[in-house]
Every structure is written in structure tokens, then in C-alpha cells.
Amino acid sequence: MKKKWIAAVLAATVALTATACGGADTDTTDNTAKKGGTGAAVFNGQLEENVTIRVLENDTAIEKGYFKELIDAFNEEYKDKGIQAVDANMDQYLDLANDGPYGYGPDVLYQANDIIMKYADGKHILPLPAEEFDCFEQIPDTAWNAFHATVDGTEYTCGIPVNVQAPMLYYRKDLLPADWESAWDEDKDSVPDMIQSWSKMYDYSVARHEANKKQYGYMKSLNDMYFSSGFLFSYGGYIFGNNNTDPSEIGFAAGEAEKGAQVLSQLASAMNEDCIDDTITTNAYSKLADGSYFATISTPDVYSTFLDELTKAYEEQEGLSEWDAAKKAEENLVMTALPQLPSSGDLTDKNAEQIVSKCMGGVNGYAVSSYTKAPNACLEFVKFATSYDMVKRRAHMLGIAPARGDVAKEVGGTSEEIFKNLDAGNIILMPSISAIAQIWTPGQTFFIDLAQDVYRADNEKKYKDLASMKAGLEDMCKQINEAITTLQ
Amino acid sequence: MKQTVQTFMKTATVPVKMSLLLMGAGHFRYGSISKGLLYLFVELSMIYYLVQRGFNDIRGFFTLGTQRADAWAGIEGDNSVVMMLMGIFAFIVIAVFAFFYVQNIKGAYAMQKRAENNLPQKTLRQDLADLLDQKFYVLVLALPLIGVCVFNVLPIIFMILIAFTNYGGNIVPPELVDWVGVDNFRKLMVLSKFGPTFLKILGWNLLWALLSTTINYFAGLGLALLLNKECVKGKAIWRAFPILAYAIPGFITLLAFKFMFSYGGPINQMIISNGGTPFGFLGIDAKWSARLIGLLVNCWISVPSIMLLATGHLSNRDMSLYEAAKIDGAGRFAQFRKLTVPFMLFATMPVLLGQFIGNFNNFGIFYFLRGGMYMDGYFLASDTDLLINWLYNLSIDNNYYCIGAAISLVIFLITSVISLTVYVKSPSYREEDTFQ
Prior knowledge:
CATH topology of the largest domain in chain B: MetI-like fold
Shape of chain A: globular
Number of domains of chain B: 2
GO cellular component, one term (chain B): maltose transport complex
Largest sheet of chain B: none
CATH architecture of the largest domain in chain B: Orthogonal Bundle
Largest sheet of chain A: 7 strands, mixed
Oligomer: heterodimer
Number of helices of chain B: 19
Domain ABC transmembrane type-1 (chain B): 202-422
Radius of gyration of chain A: 28 Å
Radius of gyration of chain B: 30 Å
Order of helices and strands of chain B: HHHHHHHHHHHHHHHHHHH
Strand content of chain B: under 5%
Transmembrane segments (chain B): 37-55, 81-102, 136-164, 206-228, 240-261, 288-310, 343-369, 400-424
Family (chain B): Belongs to the binding-protein-dependent transport system permease family. MalFG subfamily.
Strand content of chain A: 5-15%
GO molecular function, one term (chain B): ABC-type maltose transporter activity
């Protein structure tokens, strides 16, 4: 009996082993069946019905209620198809490359061009049929280029531009000298000279500080590469070669970029040691509000923070009601384009020709994940979100500078100014290649050193003339190049 | 071993020998059906696992993938990193199976011997009862052991293996990773940019670990001795203050100190209000002042824990030794040097070594106090960075995971050699019975 039982167990063993082998075959077939699903070809116009699209949006858009309006409007429009857009409820710093293949990423992403485009090489986002979008003709090539990628030798567009981010000058109208119209408006165009020219801004900074040692004119931490690099670009510097696509050529020292470094150094001399580290960046809101600083630069998205701080200051300092304080703050806080620079790179040169300031910027836009199960529905969502009405609504609610020319014109003011600057090539967009990650720390180190140099004793100074500044910039480029190439 | 095998082959019965091929066969023969079934189940599971994915995982471990993923073309492709992990897991499964396999043969042979000596066979129930009695330690330790294997050993092996691949830079999924042997270690030594930076950082790292451990230890011990004095009133309140510093998360303390020493911080404000010039305590020129501030801030964070530890140990001192020393004319410093320090070193040497390793790998101090600068003469590092910060710059900021892993291995070798040497030479190891 026992032997029979053992024989039965052995037979079962053989059978199970055979089954196990069979299982493997079946699995292989399944894997083959999974292939051929995704790709640009998946945009076939056939909307997937009864699907939910997870959208990763900008935090400010969510906070200020724009995103809710957007998805409510989209869901209403597509409710008969059963397509629903929802907040992906994910962190802005998600990693689509690692999460996407396992189904954890969003279906649609709204992020800056450098973030979106780092996914293009690995094909983690889908190439989009840009020409099909009604915004195609309205968006300048510069903005489209930020989302262009060459993959396997072919060029693709992997994102749809929505808004442009660029540094803006913030200043307080009520801190202008009482006699500005006679003393600080040489061209009599009713715009203070210091807002139009960095040379005049420097003069005013020196004058304001001399009059009151606790007050300053223009203040900004130099260590922020994003803001400081624009001064280099204005004199011929650039980030990477071949329209920011070739990291083997690093151009921060190109042209007469050292003149930009000299301008920064002169501006730093009218500040204080706080410009060396990030002290000014941290306290700019409160210092502009309490009148210690006259002007600073920042991005348009923090306008409301400056405004809130100034409102609070008026309430506390002048005892105004909240409404009156807010009204006064709106009148006095001005956000405008950057002043012009002297072609000589010397802020004390009164006869120099003025040149346009360039700056580093970025374009935020929408992209579609390669791992979405509903690519056509996602494409429809992106078309909806980048339509004239929605971008206009976005600009009104969030104060962004739209990438669409028609909306920028309609909104006017700063938005239009930024758009014009982008169109004119004065906003150098962050390159959409992975090597961009290597520029920040070497750049920051150089600018810290440059700012520190202003406060070093004469015998310890490293940057005494343009040649030494050029050498410093070349060192920085070398460091970036080594970071990119050494271990490849 | 050879003799044991020969004896086994000579004396084992056919069913026991069959256990070599069919696990549980010997147990079936000698009446332990349930144990036999369990062993058979293990074998069948192993076969199922190997066929289903085990063989593929092992092959994948060596190839690290052959098909690049292409999301646009719908090709799932191979993920080299996952393949490596699953390969390691497959080897662990095989090792576990090997353990059961040996137990199966040993068990069957032991049953044969008991049968030959007319001894009753142990049932599964008796074996399980043993696990709750004589072999309770096996039951209790098995789960943590499995946990350690999965959560500690697996990542450590993974990290070690990464050091022998080209993972990082542009070679990240969907690109396929390859084995490159000791190429990364060669780069560390040979590349002109690496060698000098590595040596400079290593020198500072060793000095930092030594100084910070010594300062923290003696400051903590000193504080504990002070608060142990009978003349100190309100000891509980005095002890509470350092604990407050300990209770605040380290990175918040570090950011607070960074602000304090910044140009706009309160220390510089005081200097300015007294007519002085602001000083860049943590600035680009501040190599040694930044290092000194790092040491002091680390002391601020670490002293409370040492103080608590020392307070506990000091209460176990044999005070009669101090009385005797006093009678013999030993002064306070002599008592401290000859009695307190040896006693404390004996009792706390493992903790002290832990502190040394912790300080050697103290990532937060200079990351929060003075991050974001690359100095001249250093490759992707500053003059206050420790090896762990450099490792971070390389592996996280710059994606060179393989080089980061290679540096990790070097750090591991350095710290383990120092720790083992110090420990083996310490009284805690050599004179274990001295204070017992």
C-alpha cells in the first residue's frame, strides 16, 4: 500500500513538472502578445472611452483653483465619452522613467521643458503631432524648440508649450526719489531711468545706500545661476553649442561674457555681503516690503508673494486696512522687463551704447506619458488644455506669460513683454538635454567667488580685470565639461 | 568530508540515497510522511520556480539584458537593474534550497540510523514541539535572519555588484547595463581628476572622523561627569537641555546653524552692529573656519547621546576604587585618567566605534552647512566634503552610480579595517572579564 502511495506521489511530481514547463511556454506567448501597443502611431484619433486620465499639474495651478476649472470643463465636454481627467495627486519631483513602466506615473504631465525633455531620450514620453494643435502657429519656434528631441536620428516634438518663465525686475514705485521725473528721467519718457538701464540702477543703488546705510537699491544674491547667467548671455555667452544641443561646447565664457561678470561684480559692490550666499534670495520679500531694498529680480510666479508681503507691511507700518493696503501694494509693486546694459560692460561708463538684457528662462508645457493606457484621450486633453480659452483663463488666474502669441497679445502687459522677448531670442531657454544638470554647481561656485571677491581685501582679489574674469569663466566651463565627460 | 560522503554511500539504504534525487524519499520510507511531503513540496516548488523564472533570472544576471526597451515601439525590453536584483534573489533562493536539500539528506540518514538502532522516529509534531523548546532560538532568529537577508544583504550585494558594472551616466534604463570588471576602481586610481581629489578628501575624512569622535566623546563624558557631581542642584533640569538639542531633527539644527553663520545671520549682524566687517564663516574662502564650525555643530548634535550613555555607565562604577585611589594619593585627574577613562572605554568601545563610523560617513553636516560648491583642485567636490558627500555628488547629482558604488566599497573597506583593528586591540575585546 505504502509503495503504491509513493508511486502516486512520484507520478504527481512528474505531472507537476511537466505542467510547470507548459506554464513557461504560455507565459512567453503572453509576453509576445503584449508587444506593439504604444508609440506615436497610437495617436489614431480613436478616443478610448470610459477612461480616467491622471494629470500631474503645477502646484500653483492647483492651489489657485485653475486646475479644477480645467478638469471640470474637460470632463463636462467629454462626459458622453466617459473620459474623465483627475488630479494625479503625485509629487512634482516624480521619476517617470522609473515609475512609468510599472504603471505608477501620470498620464499627462505639466512641467518645465528641461524636466519633460529628460524623459525623451528614454522614450518615456510620446512624440506629439504638434501640427494638429490649434496653437501650433501661435507659438514661436523658440518655444517649440524647447520640446524638440532627436531620437534615433529623427526629430520629434515631445511637449506642447503653455507658458514662459523668465526673470523679471520687481521694484517699488513709492521708493522712487521724489524728484525722479526731473533727476532720473533723462529721456523724459515718464519711465524712471533706473528701470530702463542697469547703469542708472547702479547709480541709484549707490546713491540710496549713501543716503541711508540701511537702505539699498538693487539687491539679489549672485549665487543663483538661473538669474546671474543672463548677464553673461547679454554679452555673447551661451550654455551649449549648436543651439543648446551640443554639450561638448560650453559657452559661458564665449564672446565677451566677462563683461557680464563685470556688471555683476559692480552691482554686487553696491549691495552688501548678503549677496554672496542666498540671504537676499531668502529675505527679498520682506526687505522689499519694509523698504530696505528698492528692487530685485525674480520670476513672475512669485508676484503674489511679493504683493502679500507688501500688503502686510502697509498694514503694519501705516495702519491701513487690509483692502487699502492691498490696493496700495498693487499700485506700488511693479514687475517689469529687465533694464538694458551698457555695451562696454562698465556700469560707470555714461557714454556706452545700451544693449538688450538677455536672461535664462524656461517653458512649461504638457507631455503625454508613453505608459498611458489612453493616449488618444490624453492627446485630446492636452489639446483642450492648450486651447485659446484655457490658456487665456490660465493667464488671468495665475498671471503666467503664455507661450501662445494670440493670448499674450490679448492679456497684454508683462505677459506680452515676456512673449516678445522670447520671440526676439532674448530669453535663452534651458537646454532640453541631460547635461544641463551639470551646469548649476560649477556656475554657482563661480558666482559666489565673484561676489566674494568684491568684499576681499585688495591684495586678495582674484577678479581684478576683465581678463581674470574671463579666466574664471573658462575655469567654470572646464569644470562643467569635466563633470559631463570625465566618466562617460 | 570525503570520508563522510564515502560512509554515507556505503551505509545509506536505497530510499535514503533516493533522497538525493527525490527529496523526502527517505522520510517516506521510514514513516515520516508529513516531513517527506514537506521536503517534496520544497523540491517541487524549486523546480517550478526555476522553470518559471529562476533559470531566466540566473541567465539575466550574467547577461544583464539583451533587448533594449522602446516604449514608442511597444517593446518592453530588459531592465538590467531589475535583472541583476532578480538574479541575486535567484542565488539566495538556491542557497535556501541547498540548505533544505542537505537537511533532507541528513534527516533521512538520521532516520535510517534510528531505525537500525530500533529507536522510535521523531514525528513532525515532535520536531515542531522542539522548535518551541530546545530549538526555540531557531524559530525566533529565523524571521529576523530572513529580514536581514532581504533588506540588508540583498541591497549590500546589489551595491557591491553595481561597482563592477557601467551603470550610470548615460547608461540608465532603458539602456542596457554591462559588466565591466574592475574598471571603475581603475578609474578611481588612474584618472588624473579622481586620484588627487580622492586622496585629499580621504585625508580630511579621516581627520574629521578622529577629531569629531574624540571631541564628542570627551565632551559628552565631561558633561555626564559634571552632572553626576553631588553639588549640582536640579540635575534633571540641567540634563533636559542637552536632550532638547538631541530631540530636534539634525537637519533642522544644521539649517539653523547655517543661517546663524550666514552673512545675513545673527552672528554677522552682531559683528556689524559692533562696527566689524561680516565674516564668511561658511563661505567659499572659509576652508578651516567651515571645518571648525562643522566639528562644533556635530558636537552640539552628538554630545547629548554620549552624555546619556555615559550617565548610565558612570552609575555602575565601583566607587570603592576611587576611595582607594584617593587614599593612595591619586588626584582628580589621575583618577579620571586611570579609573574613569579605562572603565568607560571598556564599556563603550563598540559604541565609540559606531560613533567613529557614523562620523566618518556623516553626510548631513557639510551637505546642509556648505553644500552646492565645487572647489578648485577638487573634482565635483568642495574642501569640506567628506567621502560620503563626494559619493553623493557623483552618484546622485551626476548619476555615476557605478563610481559611487566603487567609492562605497572603498569606504566600507577603510571603516571596517579601522573598526576591526581598534576593536581587536581594545580592552573590550582583549580583557573581557576585567570589569565583570
